[in-house]
Amino acid sequence: MQTLTKFEQYYSTIKQNRWYWLFSIFCRVLLAFAFIAAGMVKILGERFASGLSTLHPMGAYLEALHHTGYYYTFIGIAQVLAAILLLIPRTVTLGALLYLPIIVNIWLLSYAVRFEGSIVTSPLMVFANLYILVWNYDRIRYLLPFRQFSDLGLIRKPKKYSNRFPWLFFTGVFIIMVLTAAFARFGFAVVPRNSLTDCKKQFVHTKNEAAGFEFCDCIHNQGNDLDTCLEAFETATAK
To answer: For this UniProt entry, which segments traverse the membrane (predicted)?
Structure first.
């Protein structure tokens, strides 16, 4: 409980700081905008990322998802609902709780199929969502598996915020953004990219050029699954 007490003392401090508060609003607005845009596509019955070939791993997934009927519409409604709840101050905590499993699913899907379209944005959205949940810790703490709770209560909006800029916090935010982008760029030896031309560019003038071109053909022309194409690429480069 000593660690929790220290955290709650720190939490009480940051809730009085204008920059932490502004960052929470910034995260809420961006997350809401992203889900409203993505959700409305589904509600209107259009295929998300319609320009992506159905032979692409993510394109094949989205095409199949598009044909699930009312389930596809339900996902769109859930996204828009989460976004609206995030924008309303009284329901922001509920919105963040609804938002979390959806965006984590998108994050894992993006990594699983190495989709460039959301391989950077989706993990950053997860971090932003977690920040909102932490910002609203005083409201969700009773959902956590603690044996006992302090008398922290609900922290009210202060009459006057502290304007001290939290350099350490925003330095950490910047580092997380850089590391996320770096992992997306260098974390995977091979990615299918979004088109045959872009896929081939990553192998031009490299020792694995021939095997790489075969990998791209395997994905974009033959329409094989990612694991099959990766296995063939690894076998060819191991020789």
So the answer is: 20-44, 69-88, 95-113, 119-137, 165-188
DSSP annotation string for 63-91: HHHHTTTHHHHHHHHHHHHHHHHHHSGGG
CA 67, 69, 74, 77 torsion-angle sign: positive
| CA–CA distance, 65 with 49 (Å, rounded to integer) | 12
* 97-150 per-position pLDDT tens digit: 999 999 999 999 999 999 999 999 999 999 999 999 999 999 999 888 888 888
Treating both helix axes as pointing N-terminal to C-terminal, what angle do 121-135 and 92-113 enclose, rounded to 10 degrees?
Answer: 160
Q: What's the pTM?
A: 0.94
